[in-house]
Amino acid sequence: MTYTVVVRDQDRSQEVLDVITKKVKLDRDDKNPDIVIAIGGDGTILKAFHLYPKSLLFGIKTGTLGFYSNYLGTDLDKMIDDINNQTYSVSELDLLKIAFIDKDGNKKEDIALNEITVVSPLRTLRLDVYVDELYLERFRGTGVCVSTPSGSTAYNKSLHGAVIDSDLSVMQLTEIAGINSNAYRTLSSPLILSNERTILLKAVDFDKTFITVDNKQYSVENLNAVRISINEDKLRMAYHDYESFYKRLQRTFLISLK
Ligand code: NAP
Questions:
Q1: Which one of 15, 38, 198, 235 is separated from 9 by 20 to 30 angstroms, measured CA to CA?
Q2: What is the pLDDT of residue 258?
Q3: What are 3-15's pLDDT values in tens digits?
Q4: Which atom of ligand 1 is found nearest the CA of 151?
Q5: Which ligand 1 atom sits nearest the alpha carbon of residue 153?
Q6: CATH superfamily entry for domain 2-93+234-254
Q7: CA-CA-CA-CA torsion sign (25, 28, 33, 35)
Q8: 73 lines ligand 1 (CB under 6 A)
Q9: CA distances (Å), 43 to each of 37, 61, 80, 241, in order?
Q10: CATH 2.60.200.30: which residues of the chain?
Q11: What is the pLDDT of residues 62-94, one digit of tens each?
């Protein structure tokens, strides 16, 4: 068994890193680690996931929101014991996969933990939306967001999408500033799709578009089409004490800041 660490640039995270480096008994491997320890908050979890998507992820929260973190700051020794003695449990989270293609046939693929957005911040974007090849609507506006259940509390929540229990295997399509008029009509409500569906977005004009995948951004000069569905592989996250989704919601959003 080998491990690596991804650390948020912050004093408390550095202190935690020092303890981990001293006490974890596994060999360090920054190329193909079995275990990746993310020290920080959700941003650090996203970074760790994109660097090592196949590794078992341990998230330790050091003073930020930490919706994903299964170990809180006070759980450091517990986490180190779990790693050294393999006394952890593993939960799995849904991921999205995206494939997009431009006018010249150049194709890119990626996977997302939180969400994928297709946006044009300056000129309005026109997208024909298909579900399983069935034409649903023509969207015009800033863009669309497709999120996982665990990502539903991130960007999707700011777009007034539904918060989804992460035990459900679904994806959610939410509009970003859609225009609704006698010229353009869309559903306007967040749409929750089963894990067997595929969303196809066909660009009406070949325009410059941005595609975001969690904390990553692609700039596409002439977007042609985007296909999004739930990925076959899931993210594996380690935990010691099971924290229910609702407890997590409460500590992240409902207990007031002091
Ligand atoms: P960031 O802009 O520095 O931070 C985004 C904030 O979202 C952080 O407070 C982060 O928590 C929190 N967060 C991330 N995933 C979450 C989740 N699943 N549930 C609840 N909160 C979550 O960017 P970043 O840290 O690189 O994260 C990229 C993410 O930012 C994207 O995936 C997107 O969801 C989000 N975002 C949101 C908006 C918006 O709401 N208007 C716009 C753009 C992007 P920590 O403090 O623990 O890191």
A1: 235
A2: 56
A3: 999 999 877 889 9
A4: 18
A5: 19
A6: Probable inorganic polyphosphate/atp-NAD kinase; domain 1 (3.40.50.10330)
A7: positive
A8: no
A9: 13, 11, 22, 22
A10: 96-230
A11: 967 899 999 998 999 999 999 999 999 999 999
